[in-house]
Write a structure and sequence with these properties.
about 140 residues; alpha+beta; PH-domain like; 4-stranded antiparallel β-sheet; 3-stranded antiparallel β-sheet; 4 helices; disordered N terminus
């Protein structure tokens, strides 16, 4: 009986682990990269979906007041979240139970943010898009 429980626990744990998917980024045009990022970010599940998205060569901004046509304040919560492209050290693609997650990692190895999607093709295009903006980002001044 003890062996059965150990076997069941091993099966359960292995079913809950994601698999790293090796994918070398491909070339993508800026307009396509922008559209892919916008589509993926705005398709996130409701609690993770921002009300607005701003993308330029420096960063992706989520819930940016200026992008939503709101007055910009000094309140950091109202200012939204930003991911500076030059602060992204690695972009990794994972598969878990038929869904794909693209995880962004900072230089210190800490996960920055993950984006979930249904198709591998969309996940690969998202990797391409993030890598495009990473390659265009100016050097970091050490503040990101």
């Amino acid at each position: 009986m003890h062996r059965i429980w150990i076997g069941l626990l091993a099966c359960l744990l292995s079913a809950c682990t994601s698999t790293l998917v090796e994918y070398p980024a491909q070339t993508i045009a800026e307009r396509d990269a922008y559209r892919v990022i916008e589509d993926v970010v705005m398709a996130q599940p409701q609690p993770l979906r921002p009300t607005s998205l701003y993308i330029d060569r420096n960063f992706m901004g989520f819930n940016e007041p200026a992008a939503a046509g709101e007055a910009v304040t000094v309140d950091t919560k109202a200012a939204g979240e930003r991911i500076y492209f030059n602060s992204i050290d690695a972009v990794q693609l994972y598969k878990l139970r038929g869904r794909y997650t693209v995880q962004l990692f900072r230089v210190d190895g800490q996960a920055q943010r993950g984006f979930s999607m249904d198709s591998r093709e969309q996940a690969e295009r998202f990797v391409d898009a993030i890598e495009y903006y990473r390659s265009q980002a100016p050097e970091s001044g050490g503040f990101n």
